[in-house]
Amino acid sequence: MKIILFLLLIIATGAAAAAPDQVNCLSWHLAVETDNIRDWETVPPQCKSYVSAYMTGQQYRDDCNVVVNTAIEYAKTLNVSKEGKDLWVFNVDEVTLSNVPYFSRPTVGFGARKSNVGKKYESWIKEGKSPAVPGVLNLYKTLLDLGIKPIFITDTEEEFRQVRMTNLKKAGYNSWFKFICKGKNDTYSRGYSEYYDTNWKSKKRAALVKSGYRLVGNLGGWWDIYGDFLLRTFKMPNPMYYF
Q1: Contact call for residues 60 and 236 (beta carbons, < 8 A)
Q2: 134-188: per-residue pLDDT in tens?
Q3: How far apart are CA 142 and CA 161, in angstroms?
Q4: Quick check: 168 and 129 in contact, CB under 8 A?
Q5: pTM here?
Q6: Residue ranges covered by each domain of the chain
Q7: Geometric angle at alpha carbon 213, from 153 and 93, rounded to 5°
Q8: pLDDT band at 40 (very low <50, low <70, confident <90, very high)
Q9: What's the CATH number for 2-235?
Q10: Does the pLDDT of residue 39 top 60, yes or no?
Q11: CB of 171 within 8 A of CB of 198?
């Protein structure tokens, strides 16, 4: 009996010791999604398996659907102009197109430093196999029915414009008002406090507003939705990268 109790104590102690790492990953994820942890590039090593399980599991899909359904309900309340001046901004990576199949590859992995840039990532873009992010097609189709024009803004370089547009259509996004790629002179500042002055996406949105359009919504990541000119922003879940 004493031996059994001793073994149970070891098991319980081991479980208690493992718990903090899991709690830390959950807390880290919450801080990321609420923008309390900013300007990071690498998932903590102990949380890579957590991020992998989250992004490939049902919880990620459920979280995406909550954002999308909230955006749909908001869109239905809008007084859409008859002049066709109402636009909705869609960003691309982990917003309309998912790179989960790419990050799932053993040679890439979830949380690798700068794994969403470089030649390996460019090769993935050229494949044109990114599926739609769960639920986002429902928002896209609802906006079209309401008379709100979708536009896409992406960090994808101009040279990949055609392959990205083809991928979007293959995934179900069949039409849009504008598709804006990142040009050679379009840059970010990595400093959070300087972001508002150097965010090229914000400048593109400002130009549209200056031309007389109304940006009624924006679906994206943290760096995508900062800035003015928007009636409402919606943050998509993404614990894989911040920038």
Answers
A1: no
A2: 999 999 999 999 999 999 999 888 899 999 999 999 999 999 999 999 877 766 5
A3: 25
A4: no
A5: 0.84
A6: 2-235
A7: 15
A8: confident
A9: 3.40.50.1000
A10: yes
A11: no
CA–CA gap between residue 50 and residue 45 (Å, rounded): 10
**CA separation, residue 141 to residues 56, 100, 146, 171, 242 (Å):** 25, 23, 9, 13, 27
Backbone angles phi, psi at 219, to 5 degrees: -110, 120
Section 46-69 average pLDDT: 96
Query: Which residue matches tokens 């790629």?
Result: 181
**CA distances from residue 182 to 59, 92, 101, 111, 161 in whole angstroms, order as listed:** 31, 12, 23, 24, 9
pLDDT digits (tens, 9 = 90+) for 78-111: 999 989 999 999 999 999 999 999 999 988 988 7
Residue type, 174: N
Instruction: Write out the DSSP string of 29-65.
Output: HHHHHTTSS-S--S--GGGHHHHHHHHTSHHHHHHHH
Taking only Cα atoms into account, the Rg of the chain, rounded to an integer number of angstroms, comes to 20
Note whether 200 and 186 are within 8 A (CB). yes
Burial of 206 (0-12, 13-18, 19+ CB in 10 A): middle
